[in-house]
Specification:
This protein has about 55 residues and is an alpha+beta fold. The protein is built from one helix and four strands. The protein has one helix at about 5-15; strands spanning about 20, 30, 45, 50. It starts with 5 loop residues before the first helix and ends with a strand. The relative contact order is 0.22.
């Protein structure tokens, strides 16, 4: 069994996740996390569990 991903940990703990993304000058911008924005689209189960399919 694989350990949980950072996405699963954040969802399970209801953490407010933010990413530091460099702007065009290399300065960091704080960007709120959005499920599926940069990767696989999650499936949100009826019980609120967030599931990512294998790529």
């Amino acid at each position: 069994m694989q350990p949980p991903s950072h996405q699963q940990l954040a969802a399970a703990n209801e953490w407010d996740v933010r990413h530091l993304i460099p702007d065009s000058k290399g300065n960091p911008r704080i960007v709120p996390h959005e499920l599926g924005k940069w990767g696989a689209t999650p499936i949100i189960e009826e019980d609120g569990a967030v599931v990512y399919t294998k790529l």
